[in-house]
């Protein structure tokens, strides 16, 4: 099964079980991905989370049933996973802009989110600057925090972690300590359990563990190193999307499953000429 087919298999599974109590573990298992890498890949390709996709699709089907049948609102609410009519009405209004009763009574226009089909661009419309390098194992010194993958809390917590590091001077300390194989400050995701990750902000460092910091060993790997040009966060997000939608499907490489790295310089993050890197372990 190809990489794209794996993602589509998981999407098909979601569609076939929209009325069930789906778990992210079962969904990601359909693609033979870990929970973290499936959530990450899905959100990069679609710009929405797995949970948001399920919510949109359920409310789309609920709206169709509301308009085309005489079923009671409370029965439709329960069918699509809402315990109370109030919870259903709130979610329905957030997506469609009207309450269920108003939609049925006045035949209002509603938003429809169609079944997702993954398509990738193999044309390489925009050139990607990358190189393949091999590195022996190396260590980073830094700080880490554990983030839950439930409801994708990691996507909310990691930006706040960076804000704190930039505000309290930790980033300046890390740049001063940097003496290892990679120049800059690193953001590193390490899978912990099926429901959590450890996120590190650190720097490549050789020496005794600095006071107040922890150490992490990055295994020897073959890396695809992608150049990122432009201000944060858009430039980094755009290259991630290009990697998953263009490069992986056409390159012949697979993700090796070990931690990825985002590499940041000490330049102004709003600089239009800012240079950063994405390091992905490949096989």
TrEMBL record:
<keyword id="KW-0805">Transcription regulation</keyword>
<dbReference type="GO" id="GO:0043565">
    <property type="term" value="F:sequence-specific DNA binding"/>
</dbReference>
<keyword id="KW-0238">DNA-binding</keyword>
<dbReference type="InterPro" id="IPR050959">
    <property type="entry name" value="MarA-like"/>
</dbReference>
<dbReference type="Pfam" id="PF12833">
    <property type="entry name" value="HTH_18"/>
</dbReference>
<dbReference type="InterPro" id="IPR018060">
    <property type="entry name" value="HTH_AraC"/>
</dbReference>
<dbReference type="GO" id="GO:0003700">
    <property type="term" value="F:DNA-binding transcription factor activity"/>
</dbReference>
<protein>
    <submittedName>
        <fullName>AraC family transcriptional regulator</fullName>
    </submittedName>
</protein>
<feature type="domain" description="HTH araC/xylS-type">
    <location>
        <begin position="8"/>
        <end position="106"/>
    </location>
</feature>
<dbReference type="InterPro" id="IPR009057">
    <property type="entry name" value="Homeodomain-like_sf"/>
</dbReference>
<dbReference type="InterPro" id="IPR011256">
    <property type="entry name" value="Reg_factor_effector_dom_sf"/>
</dbReference>
<dbReference type="InterPro" id="IPR029441">
    <property type="entry name" value="Cass2"/>
</dbReference>
<dbReference type="Pfam" id="PF14526">
    <property type="entry name" value="Cass2"/>
</dbReference>
<dbReference type="InterPro" id="IPR020449">
    <property type="entry name" value="Tscrpt_reg_AraC-type_HTH"/>
</dbReference>
<keyword id="KW-0804">Transcription</keyword>
<dbReference type="InterPro" id="IPR010499">
    <property type="entry name" value="AraC_E-bd"/>
</dbReference>
<dbReference type="InterPro" id="IPR018062">
    <property type="entry name" value="HTH_AraC-typ_CS"/>
</dbReference>
């Amino acid at each position: 099964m190809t990489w794209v087919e794996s993602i589509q298999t998981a999407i098909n599974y979601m569609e076939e079980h929209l009325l069930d109590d789906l778990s992210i573990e079962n969904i990601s298992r359909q693609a033979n991905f870990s929970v973290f890498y499936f959530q990450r890949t899905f959100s990069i390709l679609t710009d929405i989370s797995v949970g948001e996709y399920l919510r949109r699709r359920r409310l789309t089907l609920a709206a169709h049933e509301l308009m085309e049948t005489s079923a009671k609102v409370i029965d439709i609410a329960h069918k699509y996973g809402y315990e109370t009519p109030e919870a259903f009405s709130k979610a329905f209004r957030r997506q469609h802009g009207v309450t269920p009763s108003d939609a049925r009574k006045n035949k209002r226009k509603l938003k429809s989110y169609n079944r997702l089909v993954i398509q990738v661009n193999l044309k390489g419309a925009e050139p990607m600057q990358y190189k393949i390098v091999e590195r022996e194992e190396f260590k980073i010194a830094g700080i880490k925090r554990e983030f839950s993958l439930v409801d994708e809390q990691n996507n909310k917590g990691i930006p706040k972690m960076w804000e704190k590091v930039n505000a309290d001077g930790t980033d300046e300390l890390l740049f001063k300590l940097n003496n290892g194989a990679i120049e800059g400050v690193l953001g590193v995701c390490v899978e912990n359990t099926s429901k959590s990750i450890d996120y590190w902000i650190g720097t490549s460092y050789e020496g005794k563990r600095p006071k107040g910091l922890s150490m992490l060993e990055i295994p020897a790997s073959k890396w695809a190193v992608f150049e990122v040009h432009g201000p944060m966060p858009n430039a980094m997000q755009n290259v991630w999307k290009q990697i998953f939608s263009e490069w992986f499907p056409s390159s012949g490489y697979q993700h090796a499953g070990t931690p990825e790295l985002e590499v940041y310089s000490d330049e102004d993050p709003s600089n239009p000429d800012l240079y950063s890197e994405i390091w992905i372990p490949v096989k």
